Amino acid sequence: MATINVMVIDDSAIVRQTLKMLLDAEPDIEVTDVAQDPIVAAQKLRKSIPDVILLDIEMPRMDGLTFLEKLMSQHPIPVVVCSSLTAKGSESAFAAMELGAIEVIEKPKVDTREHLTESRKLIADTIRAAAKATPRKRRTRCPVEKKLNADAVIRQRELPNAALVESTEKIIVIGASTGGTEAVREVLEGMPIDCPGILVVQHMPERFTSAFASRLNKSCKIRVAEARDGQSVLRGHALIAPGGRHLLLKRSGARYYVQVKDGPLVSRHRPSVNVLFRSAAMYGGSNVVAAILTGMGDDGADGMKELFDAGAITLAQDEASCVVYGMPKEAVKRGGVQQVLPLERIASTLVRSAASPRGSERLVEAAV
Asked: Distance between CA atoms of 80 and 130, rounded to whole angstroms?
């Protein structure tokens, strides 16, 4: 097993020591260098290049974002931002991902042995995923059209009789993990204002998803918000699963709504893509169009197969455009994926599939 060499850049000696202790305990990971700020890190990088850099944001002499931007423009290396992820710092964390960071994680909690063990597993898994990733360059953003009032999306929509057993309203569900913040952004920015209601599970810690949703709401034509329990699923709206809680699709008559609930980790995650996808298979069935995007592990793979078996249209991001080709790969292996597409085609295919008569898209794909 090849050893993953890691450099830790953090101005706190305690944090550097803790991270080194946690990572050196993993058989395939070794902290080969540490630096108290980016200036020292830059000097050490001239002598040795690590496989992954674990980077703090707020540091003396040069902040982490400035260092990250310089690094990615000169010598791209997989970078994981290790931040406290307070509400104040969330914007900086998102900026880091836009500059090329592979993932953003919380600094380890050292108050209890249990928290320390959980932190070790999360950080180690993220380091392993980052080591397999290829840093991506920033892309130029396209101007976003002025956002219309919600009445322009909802006013003309007539709900079917609540007593109907079956609904014809389409629902889009999306699951993602490592590298998914930028992938989800690209997909949602490609959605028209009258698209079907969208539910998204992106693996994120608590306090981070609200800022993520707010940021997307500013850049997308559709409305994006963190999901609230009992909230209706509406056209032109995307709901993001809150960090630390599961998101489920439910239906009352013809009305779709969401349930946000606590529960154990499923596939090592909460929220879990498998939980969302299973609920979508149960309550949406063939009215669902699903996409599984970049991410490590296999969360969502079983749920994708359940969606496929229920008659849903299922898509997966291809390996070339994934930061980590884990979740999509597992979903394909389990037979739950109809189409494997590059990221830039996911949004348009979701919209086109949702507009097709039920089942016709599946028949077309089977014939190709």
From this structure: 7
